[in-house]
Structure formats: structure tokens, C-alpha cells
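Good morning,

Attaching, inline, the C-alpha cells for the sequence recovery test we're adding to the shared suite. The designed sequence is right after.
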């Protein structure tokens, strides 16, 4: 676990920010802060699926293109995509043109509609997997018992491209765990944001 201090502002950040300036705003304003919006959560899990085998920088620089191509990641709209949309997306040079991943996120949109109907919201379902005790030094693992459980439950419900590593990266980004490095200026901010955040509650079974 390392820190990166930008010469532009002398603020200590997680070491991965050193890879590119593109990461700094994402790190400072988004990564690790709790989210309760279903669309944002669905967008992120889709983008993590697309990242599999690639760098996050590749996905981040194409994020606006992904949003345009996938109806703003409105899962109810995406659930209506058909083979013509798959063909359209495979021709879109602004996104990652991987048929398996494209078909997976369309499938996942359909499964997300089912999940929301059953649970009340995607956010309520997701926050049910927040670990009570993280217990690990930040940025020393790529999976956790909570990410394994989330991955297994999503797969049981028919989701694809949502393995434990993808689920863990999603949980890091969406604030279910605070994996900012010790000494990073955003770690305490993320902790405070979580303390002020009230997770949505699932429908009673």
C-alpha cells in the first residue's frame, strides 16, 4: 500500500492515482463514497464487468460513450435491448466491443428488473452485503467474503460477468467498504460520508 502526493496540490492520495491524472478526480469525488441510486449502482457494476481483463483507465476514458450507448444505464430501458442493439453496440468504436460482455450486461439489466421488483430497489439489495467488520489492511486483497457472497447471490439470480473480484471492485468503488489507503486524504472523508449515509432497506420477505 503506497501513497501518491501530486506536485500540483501536495494532497496525499491512494498510490494508484499516480498512474494517470485521469484518476485523480474519480478518486477524490467518487471512489469509496456510498451510493444509493439504483442507476449509478447498475452502471458501476456493468462498467466493472467491462473492465475484466482491462485497465480501469480504459473504461473511465470511455465512460461517457458507454452511457450514450447503453441508454444511460437505465436497466429498464436496457432490458428491452435485442439482437439489433447487440449488433449496433459491436460497431460502436467508443466502447469495449466484446460480444460476451455486451450480452452479459443486457442480460443483467433484465435480471436487475426482476431483482428490483422483488427487493424494492437494487440499492437495498446491494447494501445488504455491506460487511460489518472489514478487518483487512486497505488495498491488500482483491476479494473478500462479502464480495464472494454478493457474486454467488447474483449468479444464482442469473447475472453474468460478476465474479468475486468484479464484485469486490464494485464494493470498493460504491462505498460498501472504505479501501482508501491509510494516510490518503479521502479516507476520513469516505468514513464521514458513510456515517451520514442511511442505506435503503429491502422489502420484507
Amino acid at each position: 500500500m503506497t501513497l501518491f502526493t501530486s506536485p500540483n496540490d501536495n494532497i496525499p492520495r491512494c498510490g494508484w492515482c499516480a498512474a494517470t491524472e485521469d484518476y485523480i478526480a474519480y478518486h477524490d469525488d467518487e471512489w469509496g463514497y456510498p451510493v444509493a441510486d439504483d442507476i449509478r449502482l447498475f452502471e458501476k457494476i456493468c462498467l466493472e464487468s467491462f473492465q475484466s481483463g482491462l485497465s480501469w483507465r480504459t473504461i473511465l476514458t470511455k465512460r461517457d460513450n458507454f452511457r450514450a450507448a447503453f441508454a444511460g444505464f437505465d436497466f429498464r430501458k436496457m432490458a428491452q435491448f435485442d439482437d439489433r442493439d447487440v449488433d449496433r453496440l459491436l460497431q460502436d468504436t467508443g466502447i469495449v466491443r466484446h460480444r460476451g460482455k455486451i450480452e452479459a450486461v443486457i442480460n443483467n439489466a433484465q435480471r436487475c428488473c426482476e431483482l428490483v421488483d422483488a427487493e424494492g430497489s437494487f440499492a437495498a439489495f446491494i447494501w445488504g452485503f455491506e460487511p460489518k467488520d472489514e478487518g483487512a489492511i486497505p488495498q491488500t486483497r482483491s476479494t473478500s467474503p462479502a464480495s464472494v457472497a454478493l457474486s454467488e447471490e447474483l449468479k444464482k439470480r442469473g447475472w453474468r460477468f460478476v465474479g468475486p473480484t468484479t464484485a469486490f471492485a464494485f464494493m470498493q468503488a460504491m462505498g460498501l467498504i472504505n479501501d482508501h489507503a491509510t494516510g490518503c486524504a479521502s479516507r476520513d472523508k469516505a468514513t464521514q460520508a458513510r456515517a451520514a449515509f442511511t442505506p435503503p432497506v429491502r422489502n420484507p420477505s
